[in-house]
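Progress note, sequence design subtask.
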């Protein structure tokens, strides 16, 4: 019981201190519509219609826009996938093709270098050893070069998906704003509505 009394006293003290610091609420300033540059009810109605229009467009934008995080993850997993999602199909095709060619080439030359290296290890004559060692070096260098190129393409792909997604979302917003006004058929979070 003693704790409850202490708590009640503390709340009362905090309430009085809060009242001392509280500003008085000016109902006139709150109700003044001229601060919004509304001269009469028509201005308020126009503002309300514009606000409603933009809210509806924002809902469409949120449903149709491409999220950055998801697009970056897509492109990190498969280069070009994020560009496909952002409707940059040519870029996506080029990036994916170059990445695949680089990886396949790196694997091909690495495999060739490994085969020659196995022959080098099995060789017993000095001429054979020198011959297979030389044949191991060139494919190994090509393999490393193509693997590095694949890494550079992957990094560029991540950079490009950010710019492509930004561009797609900006164009989408402009497209949504330029679409014709309300037709009575509206997409809402709960489904599709037909208004008369």
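Output:
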């Amino acid at each position: 019981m003693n704790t409850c009394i202490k708590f009640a006293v503390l709340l009362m003290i905090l309430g009085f201190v809060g009242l001392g610091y509280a500003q008085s609420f000016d109902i006139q300033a709150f109700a003044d519509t001229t601060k919004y540059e509304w001269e009469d009810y028509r201005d308020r109605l126009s503002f309300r219609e514009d606000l409603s229009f933009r809210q509806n467009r924002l809902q469409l934008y949120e449903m149709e826009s491409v999220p950055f995080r998801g697009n970056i993850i897509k492109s990190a997993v498969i280069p070009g996938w994020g560009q496909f999602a952002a409707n940059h199909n040519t870029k996506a095709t080029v990036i994916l093709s170059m990445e695949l060619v680089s990886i396949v080439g790196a694997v091909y030359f690495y495999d060739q270098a490994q085969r020659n290296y196995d022959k080098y290890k099995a060789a017993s004559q000095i001429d054979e050893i020198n011959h297979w060692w030389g044949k191991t070096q060139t494919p190994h260098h090509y393999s490393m070069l193509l693997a590095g190129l694949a890494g550079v393409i992957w990094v560029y792909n991540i950079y490009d998906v950010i710019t492509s997604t930004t561009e797609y979302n900006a164009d989408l917003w402009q497209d949504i704003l330029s679409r014709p006004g309300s037709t009575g058929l509206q997409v809402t979070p709960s489904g599709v509505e037909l208004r008369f």
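The beta strands are 185-188, 191-194. Work on this subtask will continue into the next period as scheduled.
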